[in-house]
Specification:
Chain A is an alpha/beta fold and 235 residues long. In chain A, 38% of the residues lie in helices and 20% in strands. Chain A has a single domain (2-228), classed as putative 2-phosphosulfolactate phosphatase, CATH 3.90.1560.10. The two termini of chain A are 22 Å apart. Chains A and B meet through helix 7 of A and helix 7 of B.
């Protein structure tokens, strides 16, 4: 089995393989929020590309979440802060969600036969699942508006590290090699490693240090969201 | 002044700024070959996107170079091996050139106000030039068919390292941070660091180890090719 890392949604078509398992990664914060939501009992989520689509779901009685440039959009109940999803009100609900990068990454990889949601909060269960599938893996980083970002790369590196050291996966691209190197430099203190990164600074300006620390915590939500048709559900 | 790293030609439009200086990088081997050609007395080069365009120039009496997937295309006098350009026959000539990645990177950044050609062979003079310009810098890696590659990233990291440590340049993106980290891991033995990289393996299969070692040598050709209209000329 081969493992590849796609650094931006824009590049997904260059990596697509019909049988591969895709892991969508948006550490700060969409996939961390989604994993948290399912861990806290949400029933289904509907990732949508545009804010308008989220509004349409809301108008039809759904809960809805929307974030752009790090901030919750006015008129919505939820953004992409994981802490927003630690709430009894979401239990059993179906939530439409649109974010700056994460839901775009889901959108761009929609033709994949299997899409799961990865974050540091479910790192180990994601790796265990990938090992059990015995299929090629494509790690799709959401990045920031189609630019490379460090935090998603670190998560990709953590997965590459685990899959190549504990299983038979082969690295098939330079981005996987680079991700693994970067993870190995960063792993003892990812928070410090990311201190100059563009998105940590962006979130720090919005007073979201608590979100950052939470999103870098390992295995707090050992569940896997998976796409089934237009829905994300808990595997 | 800000410095950014664009990992693939596909992404260039996300980075474009009217006043920035663009450095096009294709270490294995187009930009190493171009720098070598000018160091050895070529007068002008005409980078073209397609093999057909190179053929058309050839039909009109120009010398022409064409490479795809690491190999020189039949019917051409030159490919992208730097050693092909260490030849008295190129002195004073104008050569049309089309390669798998390097000339595509030039093509994608053509709307930049200034494009120069970078490689380890002219690292220091490129950095000195960038410092003197006092403008924003965009390092455009050719990559491999619009995927990230390690060797171009290492060169970008070397430039970021030099410009941020010896001058007033600010890092403005995560890809610049990552490139600098990777260069600092690799710098003491880049040949060894790249031993598992996809392109080194591709070239090794073609028996091009000598090219690899040459392309990783520092400052052997201290000149800068620069785009002027459709031509590359020596600055």
């Amino acid at each position: 089995m081969k493992i590849e890392v796609c650094y931006t949604p824009q590049a997904y078509n260059l990596f697509h393989k019909d049988e591969a398992v895709v892991v969508v990664i948006d550490v700060f914060r969409a996939t961390s929020a989604i994993v948290t939501a399912f861990y806290n009992g949400v029933s289904k989520m509907i990732p949508v590309a545009t804010v308008q689509e989220a509004k349409d779901y809301q108008a039809n009685g759904f809960m809805a979440a929307a974030e752009r440039d790090g901030e919750m959009i006015e008129g919505f109940e939820l953004g992409n802060s994981p802490f927003g999803y630690m709430n009894f009100k979401i239990k059993g609900k179906t939530i439409a969600i649109s974010t700056t990068n994460g839901t775009q990454a889901i959108e761009s990889s929609r033709k994949a036969s299997k899409i799961i949601i990865g974050s540091f909060l479910n790192l180990d269960v994601v790796c265990d699942y990938l090992v059990a599938q015995k299929k090629d893996v494509i790690l799709v980083c959401a990045g920031w508006k189609n630019k490379f970002n460090l935090e998603d790369t670190l998560f990709a590196g953590a997965v590459v590290n685990k899959l190549t050291s504990e299983s038979d996966f082969q690295i098939d691209c330079d981005s996987a090699i680079a991700s693994k190197h970067l993870y190995n430099i960063a792993k003892d203190d990812m928070y410090e490693f990311l201190s100059n990164s563009s998105h940590r600074n962006r979130l720090a300006k919005l007073d979201l240090e608590r979100d950052i620390k939470y999103c870098l915590s390992l295995n707090l939500c050992p569940i896997i969201p998976v796409m089934e048709g237009k829905y994300l559900v808990k595997m």
